[in-house]
Write a structure and sequence with these properties.
With about 270 residues, the protein is α/β, with parallel strands linked by helices. Helix 4 packs parallel to helix 5. The protein is globular.
């Protein structure tokens, strides 16, 4: 691994960020947020987000805890997040418009490590799991294999470059699992280094395929996070060396550290 750090330390406490845009990309929304006082994150790190207004306390304001989101891309003083409505928290965040504020805590966790021994990066994403791969692909290059439920969701593939698509219903690209494409890609290029994020079952399939081919793989894993600082132990996963907290020791883990990647998953 190169000397590039995998973790940017978060400033103490939360800070207020102003939404500058909210645009639709197929079944998703891209939320652009100003963060002039925040440090530059590393690809694979995440943030805890909460609306500055209407975030719990009354009958129609159910969310209380912030939600964990990997960032899509980052630039000087700005961040992008990809949202999919799966519950009241993501619904409320998706309603934010330019000029409204949210609370940011982060960047948190450990991101991706550069490939070793001249291996070529190969990015594998499933659904909202494409998010941490976008900024990483910008940094290290390499093609992307992306799986979605439908053509509407597959519109998110436009957020990455050089992408092949698979859909569960066959409405776009390959009809089947994205790991079908990975199986073919590893045959064609056994020297690849795989970077993956997606549902637990997909990550487990990636882990098994890469282990069988001797291909190194790093998995950005998903688990319920309530605090982001390791205090709640809500994101604990089992590794070969014992239990770790994804918010501190992940969310990116080396696939060889795991006996299985089947953990309870939540959206990024």
């Amino acid at each position: 691994m190169s000397g590039v750090p995998r973790r940017t330390l978060a400033p103490f406490g939360r800070r207020r960020g102003r939404v500058t845009a909210n645009r639709v990309v197929g079944a998703y929304r891209v939320l652009e947020v100003g963060d002039p006082d925040g440090p530059a994150p590393r690809p694979g790190q995440f943030y805890m987000l909460a609306n500055a207004e209407r975030w719990g306390g009354e009958e129609d304001e159910r969310p209380f805890l912030p939600r964990a989101f990997s960032f899509l891309r980052a630039g000087p003083g700005r961040l992008e997040f990809l949202l999919e409505e799966v519950g009241p928290g993501t619904r409320r965040l998706g309603e934010l418009t330019a000029g409204e504020d949210l609370w940011l805590t982060g960047p948190l966790g450990i991101g991706f490590a550069h490939p070793e021994n001249g291996r070529r990066p190969l990015h594998v994403g499933g659904g909202i799991g494409i998010v941490p791969l976008a900024g990483w692909q910008d940094e290290v290059g390499g093609p992307a294999l992306l799986g979605f439920r439908s053509a509407e969701h597959a519109a998110g593939a436009a957020l990455l470059r050089d992408a092949r698509v698979a859909t569960d219903d066959g409405s776009a690209g390959h009809h089947g699992a994205v790991t079908d494409l990975l199986d073919e890609a590893l045959d064609a290029e056994p020297g690849a280094a795989v970077y993956a994020c997606g549902p637990p079952a997909m990550l487990e399939a990636v882990r098994v395929l890469c282990a069988a081919r001797g291909a190194p793989a790093q998995l950005a894993m998903e688990s319920g996070m309530a605090c982001g600082f390791g205090a709640c132990f809500g994101c604990v996963v089992r590794t070969r060396a014992g239990y770790v907290r994804l918010c501190l020791d992940g969310p990116v883990l080396d696939a060889t550290e795991l006996e299985t990647a089947l953990t309870p998953g939540v959206g990024h």
